[in-house]
Amino acid sequence: FTIGSDLRKYHDATSLADTSSWTKDYETKINQIFHEYGIQDYHGANDYIILDLLTQTKNLLKDRDNIKHLIYENLDDIEVGENGQYNLIKHASFSNSDPFYVFHNINKTGVKNGAYAAGLIDGYFKGDTPNLFFKYLVMYTLTDAFYEIIADKKSLPEEAFKKTMEELKVYYDDFSEIKPKWYLSCRKNLMQ
After folding, report:
1. β-sheet bridge partners, residue 95
2. pLDDT mean across residues, the chain
3. Which of 15-24, 72-81, 102-111: highest mean pLDDT?
4. What's the rounded Cα separation, in Å, for the pair 165 and 101?
5. Burial of 126 (0-12, 13-18, 19+ CB in 10 A)
6. DSSP class per residue in 111-141
7. What is the SS3 assignment for 6-20?
8. Most CB contacts within 10 A, which of 32, 98, 99, 181?
9. What is the pLDDT of residue 46?
C-alpha cells in the first residue's frame, strides 16, 4: 500500500511532458494489432471481445496527461528489504507516458502475488480505485501483450495469438470483468 502511495506522490510532483509522441506511438501499436489481426487467416470465436475492448479504450489515450516518470519492466523489480525499506529508483527507467502506464505489467505480478499487486494499486488510489483506471489497464495489458508478438515475429501467428489469448483470459476471467480476477479475489478476501 505504501509503495503505491509513494508512486502516486512521485507522479503528482512530476511536471507534464509532451503528450503527442507517446500517445501517437501507442495508437500506432494498437492500429498495428488491428492490421495484423485482419490479415491473419485464423480468427477465433471470441476474438471480437479483444478487438472491441481495444476499440473502446483507444480513444481514452487522448484524455490523459503524460509525465516523465519511473517505469518498470515488472513491478516485482521494486525491492523491499526485511526492514520494509524500498527503493523506487533502482531497476527503473524513465518514460514520457501516462502515469497509469507504470502498471502496464501488473497482471504478471498479480497472478504471482495478488496481495502485493492489489496493495500497489489501492495505495496509488488511496483505496478508492476508479473503474476508469481498469479500462486503461486492460488497454495497456492487451496492447503490450499482442504488440510484443508483432515486434518479435513481424506478424501475429496463430499459435502465439492463441497462447496470448489464453493468458489474458486468466487475468480477466475470460473477459467477463474489466477488473483482473486476481484483484477481485484480493479485494473479496480483504472484505471477509
Report:
1. 69
2. 80
3. 102-111
4. 21
5. exposed
6. HH-HHHHHHHHHHHTTT---HHHHHHHHHHH
7. HHHHHHHHCCECCCH
8. 98
9. 80
- 87 pLDDT higher than 60: no
For the entire predicted model, the pTM comes to 0.81
Q: Which cell goes with 9? A: 506522490
CA distances, 2 to each of 125, 133, 170 (Å): 11, 19, 27
Residue entry with cell 509525465: 67
- The band of 136, judged by pLDDT with boundaries at 50, 70 and 90, is very high
Which of 78-106 are b and which e, b meaning 16 or more Cβ less than 10 Å from the residue's Cβ?
beeeeeeeeeeeeebeebbbbbbbbbbbb
Residue 21 C-alpha cell reads as 509522441
pLDDT band at 42 (very low <50, low <70, confident <90, very high): confident
Q: What is the pLDDT of residue 133?
A: 93
Q: Residue 152 and residue 76: Cα distance in Å, rounded?
A: 24
CA-closest candidate to residue 116, choices 90, 153, 66, 79: 79
Could you write out the DSSP letters of every residue in 13-48?
HSPB---HHHHHHHHHHHHHHHHHHHHSS---TTHH
Give Cβ neighbours of residue 80 (< 8 Å, ≥ 6 apart): 3, 86
Q: Which three cell numbers stand for residue 16?
A: 507534464
Residue 122 in contact with residue 134, Cβ under 8 Å? no
Hey, CA dihedral for 149, 155, 159, 165, is it positive or negative? Answer: positive
Stated as kind and residue range, the H or E segment containing 67 is: strand 67-71
